[in-house]
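Practice problem 4.
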């Protein structure tokens, strides 16, 4: 598999230093992000967070449907 080394790309066209640090030197920018995407453990943590948010959306959907019916 071929990988793109984003550090070798010019900044023109949307590749910013922040993005390069995010994908190549995460420690420089980790204070701005909740999780390090490169860590397998954090992948599971993020998946669980998405799953729990989805459950909340499902509950909210039911509440809004009932309210909509009640209000006509």
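Answer key:
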């Amino acid at each position: 598999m071929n990988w793109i080394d984003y550090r070798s790309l010019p900044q023109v066209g949307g590749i910013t230093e922040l993005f390069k640090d995010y994908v190549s030197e995460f420690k420089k920018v980790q204070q701005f992000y909740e999780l390090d995407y490169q860590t397998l453990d954090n992948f599971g943590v993020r998946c669980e967070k998405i799953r729990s948010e989805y459950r909340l959306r499902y509950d909210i959907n039911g509440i809004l449907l009932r309210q909509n019916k009640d209000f006509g």
